[in-house]
Design a protein that fits this description.
Layout (H helix, E strand, L loop, with lengths): L4 E7 L4 E5 L4 E11 L7 E9 L8 E9 L2 H15 L3 E4 L3 H16 L6 E4 L7 H13 L3 E2 L6 H8 L12 H15 L7 E6 L5 E5 L1
Parallel strand pairs: 3-6, 5-8, 6-7
Antiparallel strand pairs: 1-2, 2-3, 3-4, 4-5, 9-10
Helix pairs in contact: 1-2, 3-5
Length: about 210
């Protein structure tokens, strides 16, 4: 996996902000989807990049996927993706235990001047995972999602099947993480991705509120 390079001067009317040398892609947005682990289930994170294009639908590229049953280890793995792939915002559902871990991580990262990452609720994060999966399913049907060689996701999506519903986030953690990332990139267009403010809750945990 090669690193993403942030461009000093954005291209394509400001939409081309990153370049991914491995596939020679010009990218406009890079985000992550994140499913936190539970006492019984492994958590997962997926990084998805949006190819720069004036008109939608824009091609989405899955750049990386990681998993771990341990909360701290998962956050450590995700932090590597933040640094290497410029994916500093991950979408999913808020979790109190995860908040404590992430807060501690970002506090230490600031002291060491390391990359921090933001966590933000996915679009309509109060709705069941089926809502996000339906958006992912539509993008798959449009053939606007591409996977890296060796990705587990195509096989997992086949396991879910075209008509099966997802009942909870941890049923297929990788698929749910992908659904969170894809729904964020689909529901929120690049020109409307504006944050009113970034909130530090005092524990080093950052939330981003949308306009």
């Amino acid at each position: 996996m090669s690193k993403v390079k942030e461009l000093n001067t954005p291209l394509l009317g400001g939409l081309g902000k990153y370049r991914y040398p491995e596939k020679n892609l010009l990218l406009s947005r890079i985000v992550g989807g994140l499913v936190w682990p539970s006492s019984e289930n492994t958590g997962a994170a997926v990084v998805v990049a949006e190819e720069s294009s004036i008109r939608p639908p824009r091609m989405l590229h899955v750049l990386a996927e990681v998993e771990d049953a341990n909360m701290g280890e998962l956050i450590t793995k995700v932090s590597t993706l933040v640094w290497d792939l410029c994916a500093n915002t991950f979408y999913g559902r808020r979790d109190q235990v995860a908040s404590r871990y992430l807060g501690q991580w970002n506090s230490e990262a600031r002291k060491k001047r390391m990359a921090q990452f933001f966590f933000s609720p996915a679009p309509s994060s109060d709705l069941p995972i089926e809502y996000h999966y339906s958006i992912l399913r539509d993008r798959l049907n449009q053939k606007t999602v591409q996977f890296f060689e060796g990705s587990q996701l195509p096989g997992l999506i086949l396991s879910v099947g075209p008509n099966q519903r997802l009942h909870n986030d941890l049923e297929y953690p990788f698929v749910s993480a992908l659904a969170f990332a894809v729904s964020a990139l689909t529901v929120w267009e690049p020109t409307t991705e504006v944050y009113t403010h970034t909130v530090d809750d005092g524990r080093g945990l950052f939330w981003r509120d949308r306009k």
